[in-house]
Design a protein that fits this description.
Number of strands: 0
Order of helices and strands: HHHHHHHHHHHHHHH
Largest sheet: none
Helix content: 55-70%
Strand content: under 5%
Length: 444
């Protein structure tokens, strides 16, 4: 279990949370190209891939892939910008440091030629942490809904249909207990099991979505353009791997191969976007506008293999919940400890802290069972900022005073897209969630 770790000064010119060799997981053997590629792909591919069919239904079988490729290219470019900012920071330090996302933002602003940007550098770092915490808690809300919906279908198929919120209450305790594992070392076996289950799930969804496909002509080339903001939200939810690319690069034997032309970052995006395109295309082709926020919910309810698949993927997502709860705890608890600690009973405080966080995500999940809209909401609200807006701002700050017209036009375009996607996607998602909640309340 991690105790409070205040920023250290181990030969660095300014405080960093982690210096090479001080990682709480212990000394790690540097990873080679292939190992890093595997970790990167695993990190990117999560439950968001099963919502790609819903993204296609909000765009069309022609417009969907075009828009997804455009978002992927912008996202990839923004990841390169983030790495560039990170390298600029680490090159100034006499020892090898491991800057977090927030530290990269804060110190980039701190190094700006503008005194105004320097003045607000710490606030930008804190704002980054806030969005990271909101994103991770958002993932956890989605996981609560995901597991409850899938287990609810299985119980209904066996003649017991207690309702969405009853299933949600039943899974609360096991979801809470997984977060008490505490340390990253204990969570590693959980992560391995969850990853294996996730990839088995991808194979199974490709299998089920390929059976007895209807004529492709039955699907719209361009569909529901008015719902494109929801498409953006779902895709951005799936593309939020930008939060872990810094540590992956820093753990490589040859970090330069991470961002080279055929490096880990580019190859990861090629693999990931290929999977997203394939899963989304087949899911929409198979189920059309009936496709749900998880394609597993479209699978036959009574078929044994379908039921086994839903149980398996629910287990995988339940285990993933603990991993995503770990990240905001690591960000927020040190600040909590510095302000209100130390305590005579630190372990009890930690368990109470984690319990409150779980109950918050559980409470939000109770609002609506609309999985697709919550996925879109999290993607629009946090993905646009973390994956697009912040990296572009870092480039503008780094090049302040030496900006070219090309960089200005390019970055302003990405900023406009990110802000538009964030605002419209968030508003439409909330409207749909409120509508569902109202309709459910009227039915009671």
């Amino acid at each position: 279990m991690m105790e409070n770790r205040p920023p250290t000064d181990q030969g660095t010119t300014r405080p960093f949370l982690l210096v090479r060799g001080t990682d709480v997981t212990g000394h790690k053997k540097p990873t080679n190209y292939f190992e890093t590629l595997v970790h990167a792909v695993k990190g990117y591919v999560g439950s968001g891939i099963f919502a790609m069919g819903l993204a296609y239904s909000s765009s069309g079988i022609l417009l969907g892939p075009v828009m997804m490729l455009a978002i992927a290219l912008m996202n990839l470019h923004c990841q390169h910008l983030l790495i560039r900012a990170c390298i600029k920071i680490t090159d100034k330090e006499p020892v090898e440091v491991l800057p977090s996302f927030a530290e990269t933002v804060q110190y980039t602003f701190e190094d700006s030629k503008s005194q105004l940007l320097q003045k607000y550098s710490k606030r930008f770092g804190i704002l980054t942490d806030v969005f990271l915490i909101v994103a991770e808690y958002g993932f956890c809300v989605v996981y609560f809904i995901f597991v409850s919906r899938h287990l609810g279908e299985i119980s209904a198929a066996h003649g017991w249909d207690p309702g969405y919120r009853v299933i949600l209450a039943i899974i609360l305790i096991p979801m809470l207990l997984t977060t008490f594992l505490g340390s990253l070392k204990l969570l590693m076996p959980v992560s391995l099991i969850a990853n294996v289950i996730m990839w088995v799930g991808i194979v199974l969804i490709l299998y089920f979505s390929s059976l007895n496909l209807p004529p492709l002509s039955e699907r719209d080339l361009i569909s529901h353009v008015e719902r494109l903001p929801l498409f953006f939200g779902i895709v951005l939810f799936a593309f939020e791997g930008i939060t872990f690319i810094i540590p992956l690069r820093m753990e490589m034997k040859n970090p330069d191969s991470f961002t080279s032309r055929c490096g880990v970052l580019n190859m990861t995006m090629i693999i990931v976007i290929s999977l997203y395109l394939l899963v989304g295309f087949l899911a929409y082709w198979q189920w059309g506008d009936e496709v749900q926020g998880s394609a597993f919910l479209n699978m036959p309810e009574s078929e044994p293999l379908s039921q086994a698949t839903k149980i398996l993927i629910s287990l995988g997502v339940m285990l993933t919940y603990a991993l995503h709860m770990y990240i905001p705890f690591e960000i927020a608890y040190p600040r909590f400890y510095r302000k209100w600690g130390p305590s005579n009973h630190p372990t009890v405080i930690i368990y109470i802290y984690r319990t409150i966080a779980v109950l918050v995500t559980y409470g939000i999940a109770n609002i609506s069972s609309n999985l697709g809209m919550f996925i879109s909401l999290v993607g629009a609200l946090t993905g646009a900022v973390l994956a697009m807006l912040l990296p572009v701002l870092l480039e503008l700050v780094m090049l302040y005073g030496d900006l070219t017209y090309f960089v200005i036009i390019k970055d302003v375009f990405i900023i406009v897209v990110a802000i538009a996607a964030a605002i419209t996607g968030t508003i439409l998602s909330i409207m749909d969630i409120v509508k569902d909640y109202t309709e459910e309340s009227e039915e009671k």
